[in-house]
Amino acid sequence: MHNSKSLTAYRPYWAKRFGVAPFLPMSRAEMEMLGWDECDIILVTGDAYIDHPSFGMALVGRLLEAQGFRVGIIAQPDWTSAEDFRRLGKPALYFGITAGNMDSMVNRYTADRKIRSDDAYTPHAAPDQRPDHAVTVYAQRAREAFKDVPIVIGGIEASLRRIAHYDYWSDTVRRSVLVDSKADILLFGNAERALVELTHRLAKGEKIADLKDLRGTAFMVPAGWKPDDAWGETDETVATKVGAGETAIKFMPRTPRAQTVIRLPAFEAVKADPVLYAHTSRIFHLESNPGNARALVQRHGTRDLWLNPPPIPLSTDEMDHVFGLPYARAPHPSYGNAKIPAWEMIRFSINIMRGCFGGCTFCSITEHEGRIIQSRSEASILQEIEDIRDKTPGFTGVISDLGGPTSNMYRMACKDSKIESACRRLSCVYPDICPNMDTDHAPLIALYRKARQIPGIKKVLISSGLRYDLAVRSPEYVKELVTHHVGGYLKIAPEHTETGPLSKMMKPGMGSYDKFKRMFEAASQAAGKEQYLIPYFIAAHPGTTDTDMLELALWLKRNGFRLDQVQTFLPTPLAIATGMWHTGKNPLKRVSATSEDVAVVRGGRQRKLQKAFLRYHDPRNWPLLREALKTMGRSDLIGNGKKHLVPAWQPDATTPTRKSALAASSGSRQQKSALAGRQPVKRDRSN
Length: 687
Known about the structure:
alpha/beta, 25 helices, eleven-stranded mixed β-sheet
C-alpha cells in the first residue's frame, strides 16, 4: 500500500517553470496571462474561490501548483448544462470535484428540511448557487463536457458519502456517491497524500483505472476483484461470519492484518434492514485508525465498492508546507467588493491543527479528518500571524482565532505510538480520558504567549470550540486563556445535562462543566474581567426523551440562561448518531435484532417540542410547553412564580414586547450571566 512518501519528496512536474499564479485562474484570459495553453487539473467547487488555506479548493490547488502542475478553478458553475464546465478547456490530467467546505445538503437545508435563505460561501450570501448532491451533479456535467477526462471526487461530501449511507433529506439509504457520480476514483479524508501521488502517476502516463493501491481512496471493481497476488485466494481461504452481515475474508493462511479485507453488508441489504445498517456503521467506525484499519468492500449491484485504509496523517513539516504555500489570502478579484460571509468570518483566524479524538457521535470531523491530531509548528503559526498583519487588508490587530476543530488539542497525542497504532477506541476521552493520552497544554500556552507578543498584535482570541474536560486538567491553561484570550464570552458545548443523551453523544457529564465553570469564573475575577460562558445544547438527539429536555430546561432556568438560537439534531451522512436516528439501534455496542433500542425523535411536532424546551422563555412556545407539561404530569411547573417554567397566562399575540415577555417567564430580574445565554448561537459541525 502506497502513500508514505513525503509531500515534498516528489520531483516537480515540468510546468513548474510557469511560476506561481497570483490567483489560480478562473478564466481563459487569466490562463493566457500566465502563458498557459491548457490546465493540467481543473478543480470544480460549490464554493466561491477564496485563496486561503481554510478553503479546500485553494489548499488543494496551491498544493498541486507547488508540485509543478497548472491548476484552474471553476467555482460555483452553472450546473444546468455542461457548457460552464468547458470554461477553461479540456484538462490534460483530470477534473477534481468537490461540493465545497460543506456537504451541499447541509449547506442548502435546515434541520427542518427547509431551504436556507443564504449561503455563507457565496458572494453576497446569495442562495441557490449550488445544486443538491453537488458532487454527483458536477461530476456528471464534467463527464458530459469531456467524456474521456478522468474524474476525481473528494472533499467532505464525498468523504461522508463514500459508502451506502442514510440521507436525511430524502429519508432513504443512498448508494455510495462514487456509484451515483460515475467518477473514476474517490479520495476521502484530508487527501493531500493520495492526491499528490495520484497526480504525479497520471502525469507519468499511468491509467486512473490502474491506481488501486493508494490509501484514502475508493473505487469500483468487478465483484470478487482482488488487489494482487499477495491477497489471492488459496485453498485455505477463510470466510468467517463475525456478526450480522460482516464477513472477514482472509485470502491466505496467517495473512497479516494489513492484507485482510472486511466485507460489509451490501447496499441492498443495508437499505432494506436497519439492523444491518447499524451494524455496518459500527464496523465502519471501528476500521478508522490508520494504524490498524483494514480495507472495506461493499457490494453495489453487480460490482464491489472497495475502500483502501485511511490516509496516513501529515507530519508537522508537511502541515507547515501545506499551510505555508503562497496563498493570496483573499477572494478572487472577479468577485469585486462582494461580501462573502465565510471569508469575513475567518480572514483573521488561523488553523493550528486538524483532526479530533473526541469522537462525538453527531459530529462529522472524525469521519473526515480522523482522530489523530496533526499540528503545525509554532514557527509556522507565528509566521502566518505576521502575514495577516502585513498582507490582509482591514486588519486591526486582533487575531479572531487560533484553533481548529477543537481549540485545545494542539500537539496532543497518544504517549505510545505502538498503542496508538493498535487502538480501536472510538474516542480518547469517553467515557473517561484515556490514561495513554498526553493532555499537556504547555505547547499551547507557549504558543499563546508568543503570539500576543508579536509587534502589531493587540489581542489574540480563541473562538474554536473548547474541550473543557481536557482544559480542567491544566489550571495554568485555563488561567492563560481566561486572562488573555476571551473576548467577553467563551463558547463551550456541554450539549446536554442528562445521562441518556450524553451517553449516545459520547460527551462527558456535567461534572466537568461545573468544574470548568468554577475555574473560568475564578480566573475572570482574578483578572478583573466580567466574562461569561455560552453553553451549546442540542435538542432531539437520539437517546433524548421529552423528560430529558424538561430537565435541561429547568437547568437553564436555574442558571439564568435564555438561548436565542438553538440547535436541533441534524443527521449528517455517516455519523454514528445518524445511524442511531435512522435505525433506532446503538452502533456504539454490538448490534443485533435484540440489542439496545435507542429513543428517536422523528416527528415534526416532537422535534418542535424538544426545541421549545430550550427556549422555554419564548411566549410563542408557551402553549406547546403547557400542553406537554400537563401530558407529562408536570402541571406544577405552570404558573407565575420563580419555581415555574412557563406562566399560566398568554400575552396578546399582537402586542407583547420582548422585555415584558421575558420578564413574565421568570418572575425576577435576570442575573448578569443570562446575558451570555441571549447571545446568538449558530454553528454547523459538518465542515
